[in-house]
Amino acid sequence: MKMKTAPMGWNSWDCYGAAVTEDIVRRNAEFMAEHLKEYGWEYIVVDIQWYEPYAATNEYHPFADVVMDEYGRLLPAVNRFPSAANGAGFGPLAEYVHSLGLKFGIHIMRGIPRQAVHQNTKIMNSDRHAREIAKTNSICAWNTDMYGVDPEKDGAREYYNSIFELYASWGVDFIKCDDIARELPHEESELIMLSKALHGCGRPMVLSLSPGPALLEKAELYKQISNMWRITDDFWDKWELLYDMFSRAEKWCTHAGAGHWPDADMLPVGPIRQVYDVNNWTNFTQDEQITMLTLWSIMRSPLMLGGELTGFDEFTMNLVTNSEILAMHANARHSHQVWRREIDGIEHALWIAADTKGGYYVAVFNLGDKDSDISIPLADLEIYDGVNGTELWSGEHVEEQKSLSVSLKSHGARAYHFTYN
Amino acid sequence: MKMKTAPMGWNSWDCYGAAVTEDIVRRNAEFMAEHLKEYGWEYIVVDIQWYEPYAATNEYHPFADVVMDEYGRLLPAVNRFPSAANGAGFGPLAEYVHSLGLKFGIHIMRGIPRQAVHQNTKIMNSDRHAREIAKTNSICAWNTDMYGVDPEKDGAREYYNSIFELYASWGVDFIKCDDIARELPHEESELIMLSKALHGCGRPMVLSLSPGPALLEKAELYKQISNMWRITDDFWDKWELLYDMFSRAEKWCTHAGAGHWPDADMLPVGPIRQVYDVNNWTNFTQDEQITMLTLWSIMRSPLMLGGELTGFDEFTMNLVTNSEILAMHANARHSHQVWRREIDGIEHALWIAADTKGGYYVAVFNLGDKDSDISIPLADLEIYDGVNGTELWSGEHVEEQKSLSVSLKSHGARAYHFTYN
Amino acid sequence: MKMKTAPMGWNSWDCYGAAVTEDIVRRNAEFMAEHLKEYGWEYIVVDIQWYEPYAATNEYHPFADVVMDEYGRLLPAVNRFPSAANGAGFGPLAEYVHSLGLKFGIHIMRGIPRQAVHQNTKIMNSDRHAREIAKTNSICAWNTDMYGVDPEKDGAREYYNSIFELYASWGVDFIKCDDIARELPHEESELIMLSKALHGCGRPMVLSLSPGPALLEKAELYKQISNMWRITDDFWDKWELLYDMFSRAEKWCTHAGAGHWPDADMLPVGPIRQVYDVNNWTNFTQDEQITMLTLWSIMRSPLMLGGELTGFDEFTMNLVTNSEILAMHANARHSHQVWRREIDGIEHALWIAADTKGGYYVAVFNLGDKDSDISIPLADLEIYDGVNGTELWSGEHVEEQKSLSVSLKSHGARAYHFTYN
Amino acid sequence: MKMKTAPMGWNSWDCYGAAVTEDIVRRNAEFMAEHLKEYGWEYIVVDIQWYEPYAATNEYHPFADVVMDEYGRLLPAVNRFPSAANGAGFGPLAEYVHSLGLKFGIHIMRGIPRQAVHQNTKIMNSDRHAREIAKTNSICAWNTDMYGVDPEKDGAREYYNSIFELYASWGVDFIKCDDIARELPHEESELIMLSKALHGCGRPMVLSLSPGPALLEKAELYKQISNMWRITDDFWDKWELLYDMFSRAEKWCTHAGAGHWPDADMLPVGPIRQVYDVNNWTNFTQDEQITMLTLWSIMRSPLMLGGELTGFDEFTMNLVTNSEILAMHANARHSHQVWRREIDGIEHALWIAADTKGGYYVAVFNLGDKDSDISIPLADLEIYDGVNGTELWSGEHVEEQKSLSVSLKSHGARAYHFTYN
After folding, report:
1. Strands (E), C300-402
2. Can you spell out the DSSP letters for D329-355?
3. CB D393 within 8 A of CB D349
4. How far off is chain A from C215, nearest CA to CA, in Å?
5. In chain B, which residue's Cα lies nearest the Cα of D247?
6. Rounded distance, CA A176 to CA A20, Å?
7. Are C137 and D136 within 8 A, CB to CB?
8. For all residues of chain C together, what is the average pLDDT?
9. Does the distance separating the beta carbons of A340 and C384 come in below 8 Å?
């Protein structure tokens, strides 16, 4: 798939961990259709362990029994996803999401269920069995559900084909594949096999790779076989993680383009971690959230909302429905950091991108612990004829000849759209 | 156990791989009792996968079904070990070996069977189950039988106690524990727990740790909790491996002592790899075998015969029943390499050890590809009063004042026992 | 200095090594003024060892006597630069270069002459002496002229001020400082001190740092204290070095901007290494030279001609006076590699940059050993409305809707300037 | 030289740094001859910078002028060593030391004086000059006196021959060569050249290599070309350094033998660092000094006294004249650590060595911060017939059957000499 803009959507992980249910998915899909779809948000993604009947938090049950068919293909737990009864899988839920004008995605883990291997299930369209294709020393470091699949073995290709055939039959539009992005080079051939199976299944699907950090030296591979890949380990609502993203973004930014985007991970905004406490709310300040949306947008990271949509407050809704910011996310080109340095003892970062019509975007970030008033020479941006445009979060008109005066909150950001004079 | 001399015995691996059977064990035990026991050979060790009914070669069947009891404790496959029928385990076979005046050992793998985890068997003398103690991301890199056990978990100690209680009930005298010696520091606490369980089981057992290379910086730990530990990966009948052992031996030699020995691995002599071809014979030349026995003996490595004993030829019998060499193995003290250098363009190594009565042992090795005649100044050995003694392989009397003249075959060795003048 | 475009000029090293003389400099300056100045070429740089009377090749004479003043400041060797007689230094030569409408640069080495240290010369405007400021264990790995200067010592600042005061008095416009760019972090404080002295001397000078490879993690430092810094070790006329530059360029490209440019080193074109043989000519093929100029220009590396200008043939003159390519060098913005991958088994690279007026530059490189005919989907460039423009080396008009067809020689390149439709 | 016992003597460094004078040397030599010679102490060594007229402390004067002859060979500064007047060098002082029945040694630095290089002095017995043999990028990291010599250059061999010829003419018996032991592998060929020149000069000299840590993987090289080599960086009177020596000693101990000894460095006992303050005294406690002498002696390190001998108090005199301890130093064979472990929460180390007559030495160390009473099973020492002997520091008779009871002070030691029963 070669989409023009990075995927935007909702993912169940930040709020529901391994315990998401059909009700939750439907509720968030409905909210998105009604309130967010018009701004470009479209993917509804069911994250990890939908095949585990008793998942209850962000934790995994070691060696839990999983639901699967006779070919070792995982199926939704019917107690959590009632519409999956009678072997329907995610078909009915996907159909419902599609009926709302949205797209449907699921999380998978690299490999074949250990349970299939221990039961030695048949591989569909093959005379091989699960034990014959499992890669004996390839396991996930943090989850016990799967064994890796050995691409050298007869039956391996048929197994991967069989699962994507199933997902295609359900109407899946988006695959978030886990335990794979940072498992290079040792599992590179399994990743390539998986990508081929997905792209050959007859239904277009976005391929999203987790977890990070992906390897910078493999950038060309990710670009050619997937649509997005995580550039950090799990991102949560802590300033240290947001601060660290600037270093990652600087290195990865030139690899964003049509159909391939470095992924800075989900946006933990609004109500999150509800599976632990229904009163939980993001720890990010409003300024930090503005910084996050600004950085994610100018670098063109995929945007996946992590909070329960129906609980979004006015700030959060404004944050994710700022049309100018989302236009930057869609239209920025050649984005890159201009510099990152201390000004008056406070660390700042400056980013620039072209737009598609001869204008450009500029973002300024205060990464320090104090507010700042700084003046950025336009020559730093190689602009010699003055600027004329808008600050995108405030809507203020900006027109300057020699330098850009910026007032920033600690951990805050400003984003500008300028046209050439 | 604090034995005075390093264990000497026979192990089924080099000849029978994973496919050893009761007949083979009995036959070799009988031969040992009749022909070798008088020289100090005493352990009969059943190596890996005695619990797997269909093991046939040195290869392991991935995810094979294994024989175990209701507590997840592995049992001998009755089709291979008929006397184990009716839950007798290795009891009858151990009893037979004991009746011959020998000792009985078995191989185990660190951890708990994956099959027990997937069946979630009970832990004996505990209200915990297998899934609760398995360490989710701890597997053997080359065998799929087990999961590691997490020492932090309730039930872990009881599990390890339960298996050694079983082995003690069978009459086991020697445990070769695999997937553990080089798995430090990450599995160190499991190793310590295992050692405690073994030493607390009520029956003295030798604890032998595999595979190597063990970590030199952990020498004190090995010495305190085990009796022998492998200093290389699997040793086979290739000169390169024998050559490499000199570098290992040099570093490890000072760690040999009562009850704790760096282990240079089995001696692949006589008929080996018979499971593949009944005509297979060691690839080592006779000189190389003399070099091997000399090095193993002066450094006091355990001596475990790898070949089918009943097929030993006269050379091999002489090799392993040289009383003088075996006396060096028993009585060498403070063994160490004196130097390793080229003489006339041919690499040689010189070793020395004290004996327990004021004499000393000297070994000279030709590590090059040509025969050599060299003269070793006795000053190199810090001997200033001349030497008087015997070359142990030839029985020749040696008496010299200033230097030791040695004729060596390529890859060959000489060993001397001298008394102070 | 914050110039808008990366420096363009001539440097004596590639053709004359350490042996350049005043005649050579004047001849090349005159040629540049007459034939190249109108295209933007303006710097005339005297490279290493102008202070060594007997330098004869690219080699350095170990511990050679050097010409210096009473304050340990190096002076041109009068036998090689006659106009430097009577203490005039490079003043008369700089004046002549300025009279031609060009700018004048010199090479220096980090530190203070060892000869000054051994003579313990006074530091100008200080009561300290050379031995007191020399950093005792800081020497250049490949040249014996200097000791590093210890910024912690009294007199160190005065020494660096004194040399830049001298260079300013001569009328120097460009300093190529050697033994410094890759000597981080250990000599970072000396680099910062040197940069401050240069910027405080009262005359604007370009600061160019050698040798490479510079450290990517120090990009911000280079950008803030210098104008250009070498991203590789010495670049010469070998395909392997040109091929390797693509990997360097990909990583460094986002750090090019007004006043600061990653430096891919001199262009070894036309007659080079004449100091060894007056018939020497660049080993690069014409296609390789086109590739080089294309990459250097789209990434905006400084352009310093290495060959004897008066010997340039027609191809070389056309190569360095292609106005459209030089416009790309001046006006490219946000340059970056789009991808680098095999097409039909031949490695290619694709680069893009914006121009300053809403158009963009595209460069395509064949890095393989065979010619190729490829078709690049415009979607790879995120262009959805077709392209309209010119191929810059051939001048051909190009207009395409969906993909760009490119015929490339092995090691060759094409460069395009498009405007948005 | 293949001496039977490791060198014992006095070295000026610990007390006088770079500032030693002839008076000091004579005074200490006289004291040694009268009070220590009978115990085996015999070398008097003049440490670093005897060629620098103004050396005053342990610090070096950067780029100081040095005294040398027309061939760039360093000479004693006559203001410090008056008997060196009229080109006599160390001849008269060596003669005096010899007249006392002692041996005379000097410190040298690897290489050729920088001053010789800058003056481009002639190489004796060669038509080459200093600049031609200096290795341009080989300097000492902590002293500016010398350049390395490039063994590939004509004249290099002649230079090294010329300095040892000079030392031989003076009557030097011991060379402590600095800036060399840890400079491998990069300066290995210079070390080999130096060793050959020393061994070919016609006078036997001990070759001692500094500074440490030497490289364990080069043990064979040190053994073959030198007599002693430092196993740590400079050793001073701090417990942390003494504690650290146990880890070094454990690894190096098997490399001690006739003519080659791992060197644990000088013994900072009694009055030291007098160059700074005439009241300075070693910071080591008496127990720590006993531990030091015990470890150095059982491992057979060279013993070089660092304190001003004439100021030794009764404890210090007893410490260095304990005949039994010095007999262990002379006669220990095959020394090695038996174990190092916590007993009752206090770290202890146990060492053993054979003697030359069928007995053995045992040393026990308390490395913890509390006193201890421990019982060591004789089986740990592989002694099964009881022990019978003497504790060497107290002279107490010891006779035990099963275990050795030892009372130890914190940081203290006991040393035993046992004969086999």
Report:
1. 303-305, 333-343, 346-354, 360-366, 372-377, 387-391, 397-400
2. HHH-EEEEEEEEEEETTEEEEEEEEE-
3. no
4. 14
5. B217
6. 15
7. no
8. 97
9. no
Give me the percent of chain D exceeding a pLDDT of 90. 96
Please tell me the distance from the alpha carbon of residue B67 to that of residue B52, in angstroms, as a whole number. 6
Please report the pLDDT score of residue A95 as a whole number.
98
Neighbours of A339 (CB within 10 A): 18
Return the pLDDT at D193: 98
Q: How far is CA B231 from the centre of its chain?
A: 10
User: pLDDT tens across B10-26, in order?
Assistant: 999 999 999 999 999 99
- The alpha-carbon gap from A141 to the nearest alpha carbon of chain B, in Å, equals 5
> Residue B111 above 70 pLDDT?
yes
Burial class (CB in 10 A: 0-12, 13-18, 19+), B235: buried
Residues with Cβ within 8 Å of B279's Cβ and at least 6 positions away in sequence, in order, are none
CATH fold for the domain made of D335-419: Immunoglobulin-like (2.60.40)
What is the structure's pLDDT at A128?
98
Q: Examine the pLDDT at A421 and tell me if it is beyond 70.
A: no
Taking CA–CA distances from B336, the nearest residue in chain D reads D254
Question: C224 and A341: CB-CB below 8 Å?
Answer: yes
Q: What's the gap between Cα C29 and its chain centre?
A: 17
pLDDT at D421 over 60: no
Determine the length of chain D.
421
Task: Specify the pLDDT at position B314.
Answer: 98
| Residue of A293, A281, A351 lying closest to A321 (CA atoms) | A293
- Interface-testing mutation among B118, B133, B145, B183, with chain A (most A C-beta atoms within 10 A): B118
When pLDDT is averaged across residues D342-370 and rounded to a whole number, the result is 96
Task: Give C8-331's CATH code, choosing from 3.30.70.3040, 3.20.20.70, 3.20.14.10, 1.20.120.140.
Answer: 3.20.20.70
Per-residue pLDDT tens over the stretch C220-240? 999 999 999 999 999 999 999
Distance (Å, whole) CA C180 – CA C210: 6
Q: Decide: helix, strand or coil at residue C367.
A: coil
DSSP code, position D74: B
pLDDT in tens, D284-320: 999 999 999 999 999 999 999 999 999 999 999 999 9
- Cβ–Cβ under 8 Å, residues D161 and D197: yes
Chains in contact with B, where contact means 3 or more Cβ–Cβ distances below 8 Å, are: A, D
Nearest-Cα residue of chain C relative to residue D120: C63
Instruction: Give the per-residue pLDDT at B420.
Output: 63
Interface predicted TM-score of the whole assembly (ipTM), two decimals: 0.95
Closest Cα of chain B to D329: distance in Å? Answer: 14
Could you report the per-residue pLDDT of D89-133, keeping only the tens digit for each?
999 999 999 999 999 999 999 999 999 999 999 999 999 999 999
B187 membership: H or E segment, kind and range = none
Cβ distance D4 to B382 less than 8 Å, yes or no, reads yes
From D359's Cα to the closest Cα of chain B, the distance in A is 7
- Is the CATH number 2.60.40.1180 carried by domain C335-420? yes
Largest CA distance in chain A: 73
Residue of A nearest to B135 (CA): A62
Query: pLDDT value at position B1?
Result: 64
Chain D residues within 8 A of B334 when measuring between CB atoms: 333-336, 352-354
Mutating which of C60, C61, C65, C118 best tests the D interface, going by the most D Cβ atoms within 10 A?
Answer: C118
Strands (E), A266-412: 303-305, 333-343, 346-354, 360-366, 372-377, 387-391, 397-400, 403-408
- Spell out the domain ranges in chain A: 8-331, 335-420
Contact (CB<8Å) C353/A334: yes
Instruction: Answer left, alpha or beta for residue B358, where phi above 0 means left and psi between -120 and 50 means alpha.
Output: left
- Rounded CA separation A371/A285 (Å): 14
B234: closest CA of chain A, how far (Å): 19
